[in-house]
Amino acid sequence: MAEVGEGGETGLERQRDPGSEVRASDAEREQVVELMRQASAEGRLTLEELVERSDAAYTAKTRGELERLTRDLPAPVPGKAPVPATTSSTVPARRPSRWAVAVMAGVDRRGRWRPAERMNVVAVMGGATIDLREAEVTDPEVTINAVAVMGGIDVVVPEGVRVEFTGFAFMGGRDEHVADVPVRPGTPLIRVRGFALMGGVDVKSRPVRARSPRDDPGDRA
Fold first, then answer.
1. Helices (DSSP H) in 42-104: which residue ranges?
2. Exposed (0-12), middle (13-18) or buried (19+): which is 89, by Cβ within 10 Å?
3. The whole model's pTM is what?
4. Which of 76, 48, 54, 51 is nearest to 66 (CA)?
5. pLDDT at 219 over 50
6. What tens digit of pLDDT does each residue of 52-97 get?
7. Is residue 64 packed enough to be buried (19+ CB in 10 Å), middle (13-18) or exposed (0-12)?
8. Which of 143, 145, 174, 201 is the Cys-Cys partner for 191 at CB 3.0 to 4.6 Å?
9. What values do phi and psi take at 115, rounded to 5?
10. Between 8 and 204, where is the model more confident?
């Protein structure tokens, strides 16, 4: 016997939403990705979640698949205009930088955290790890100034995020191990400026954790 829910609706009937089986258009996919990008900027999605859901949105075939990706996000406010891009005549005030310093010790920034638009990471005879995979990145660009003196600094990003790595090393190393995969639209730019003196600064990407196709974003912790 079919399970009866609220209002006398059976489980089978709840699954038969005609609109959810309608094929999604490219414009609808772009709208969903933009909604998720805004959610990431508001701290509702981590960088890794944004990459994962953007991938799923661009491969979604039906409106129902798109709806499931945004089920746990607030609906867009009708009539709300998008935030205009910054121009040379309207430059916002720069927010304070965030520091992470390791002197003969170690410092880690990982898990769910919110990086500043500009970060300064210093490791002197110590080590530092800046893991952005589960970070709530609220800015379109994040700049990390990494200075390693007889120490090491690792910066980790999810695959699909654009990275610009510059700097130099003297009697040390400056290595980039970022997967050559397409950049996901809507993800922020990560700029890393690495300076190493008898030390090393490494930037590496890691695959987004695999999830079951039946996973529902609204059910995740």
1. 47-59, 63-69
2. exposed
3. 0.71
4. 54
5. no
6. 998 889 888 999 999 999 999 988 765 554 444 444 444 555 566 7
7. middle
8. 143
9. -75, 155
10. 204
Task: Give residue-wise pLDDT tens across range 14-58.
Answer: 455 666 788 989 899 889 988 998 898 888 999 999 989 988 898
Q: What is the pLDDT of residues 159-191, one digit of tens each?
A: 999 999 999 999 999 999 999 998 888 899 999
Which of 50, 80, 110 terminates a domain? The answer is: 80
For 174, the domain range is 98-206
- The C-alpha atoms of residue 61 and residue 219 are separated, in whole angstroms, by 21
Q: Is 8 domain-assigned?
A: no
Examine the domain organization and report whether 54 and 142 are in the same domain. no
Residues 129 and 162 in one domain: yes
Structure tokens at 25: 């258009």
Tokens of 134: 């589960």
Side chain identity at 90, as an amino acid letter? Answer: T
d(CA 129, CA 13): 50
Residue 84 tokens read as 């205009």
Tell me if 127 is assigned to some domain. yes
Q: Distance (Å, rounded) from C-alpha 5 to C-alpha 12?
A: 10
**Shared domain check, 135 and 193:** yes
User: Based on the domain organization, do 144 and 49 belong to the same domain?
Assistant: no
Residues 123 and 202 in one domain: yes
